[in-house]
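B., you asked whether I could sanity-check this one before it goes into the benchmark set. Here's the sequence:
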Amino acid sequence: MTDVTSSKSTRRPHHWRHDLIELAALFTAVVVADTIAKTVVKGPDGPYLLVFSAIALAATAAFHTWWARRHGHTSHAPPAGDTGGRPTTEQAAVTATTRNDTEPESEPEDGPESGPPAETTLWRMRTTVADTPGSLAALCTVLARLGVDILTLQTHPLGDGTVDEFLLRAPADLSARALARETAAAGGRDTWTERADTHDLVDTPTRVLGLATRTALDAAELPLALRQLLGRCTLHSVPAFSLTGRPTGEQAPVEGVLEETVMRLRDPHGGTLIIERPYLPFTPTEFARARALVELDARLGPRVPRSQDVLTLPEGNEITVRRADQRDLPAARAMHDRCSARTLGLRYHGPVGDADRYLDHLLSPRFGRTLAVQTASGRLVALGHLLWDGDETEVALMVEDDWQRRGIGSELLGRLVAMAEETGCDSVYAVTQSSNTGMVAAMRALNLPLDYQIEEGTLVITARLAPAPRPADRTRQEQPSEGARRAER
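And here's what the prediction gave me:
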């Protein structure tokens, strides 16, 4: 379809029936006028009546013209050159040029008229406003005055207000302190800001569905999904019974508990999931989302991806590396029985007789991920664990004596670190003894920055996977985690 309307389509169609009717009406009007004129002229005052009638008609026509010009609808009429079609490209260009020349500039007087776009920064901001009409509009007006673009907005209703969570694109020279100050002036309170990145541009429903999918495919993803759903938080899974079989007293109600900065949710595998975020209170909306994710995990039951890789050792033996869970508990206990006391002592840093008590905890997907190595005959000969320790991540290895020094430990450690990187961990740490040269050599072989800390013969090696978040980018600092590294694992 072109933008120019053809002249043929603008002509008004004519029909011979309309012409015949108009001609008949004309003849009838002439007969009536002739009859009236003859009747009036033959009267005594005929000529005068004709003159007065002509004057009255002229006055009526003049009054109608004046009234139409004053109260008519000429302002709504289309331009003379408008044929009813879409404007051509040339007409649109002329119209745009005319509009730009006549309209005032919307840019500030001291702003640049042209040039490359200014550098911007992404921010996440959360503030509480009064639940009254116009409160959000006042805040948006202040953000617009600062040159801040609102990319996404979520609302979390409260009893005494509404928590508004923004994803903002702001000028690079706008500091977090200035943004919080202007927000407070517009009526916002308890304002919290932090730097964001392009991953935060995904809308909330899409992000939640992605986390639900990850949880559905792998039970070990639930703690990670909760972290990503709620932001930086500390998650502890407290079992209902201790390693010695005594009740821990941690059993949350079915509906869960929300206490400002702490959530307590019932763990589907027994015990309680404790989620803490000291720097920012949870909202009822966040609590409902977290509880729904935990309920999904409970309904799906135990599940671990069953993918496996077959590798060939330097001496020619084939081994299989796969994910493991609590269903591998009998095979893991059999491996313990074949290991020496020294191997068990280097791994668990405690009495050898208590080693079996840790296996049920370590193989649970609630506490992390486990990789198992088995031989061609199906015998389990090595275990590698990636454990969620609050907001930190621990790696641990154990290789059966007869299969040590064959590269199995390094292979497991490399895969565990790759898993940690995929989940967004900043670092991983290993707790061992200074005499465990095999573990130290495997950590060094990662070619990552390492930190060493020795306390009473216990060696903690931390590998940095990515730069830590900059504290200066936040107006409120997160409190340090209360969970310390547990050397007894």
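One thing to flag: The radius of gyration is 40 Å. Otherwise nothing jumped out at me.
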